[in-house]
């Protein structure tokens, strides 16, 4: 009956890749004291009746290591973009120059760096939880197949496959966290 059971490890892997991808996006939004266009990705602007990413209302540039500029295409949007940046919680004070908004990136102090490493740790823990939930889903599928007549040897084989996949992804998360924390603490 369940002798032909085969766990869809490709699906599990794809979903785990999604968790890693989400973690990378969250890490990119953490500012490390260097200017980066990606730090503005989570910021949304009220534009033309809907919430819109900043990069869809203007050109985001990084002309120097401690400066991000946004060249807003529509003059009427400059105030809204400035307001969205102020309210984003990034801790950046925008400066206006016509349709160009300049964002000087302040040097991070030791306390702020420590806070950011903790935030990075929280992001990593959320990713680990997502991976563990996917592991549980895989194990539940195996248990269901066992109830349907899967042999004990096959059960052990599939459980080991799922566990190896989980360990590999958890290791990736830990490596990315270590890299990001080192980047944040770098002066």
Automatic annotation (TrEMBL):
SUPFAM superfamilies xrefs: Ribosome recycling factor, RRF
Family under the similarity heading: Belongs to the RRF family.
Protein's name according to its UniProt entry: Ribosome-recycling factor
A GO CC annotation given for this chain: cytosol
Organism: Limimaricola hongkongensis DSM 17492
GO process terms (BP): cytoplasmic translational termination
Gene coding for it: frr
HAMAP family: RRF
One family name in Pfam for this protein: RRF
Gene3D superfamilies: 3.30.1360.40, Ribosome-recycling factor (1.10.132.20)
Annotated ranges, domain Ribosome recycling factor: 23-185
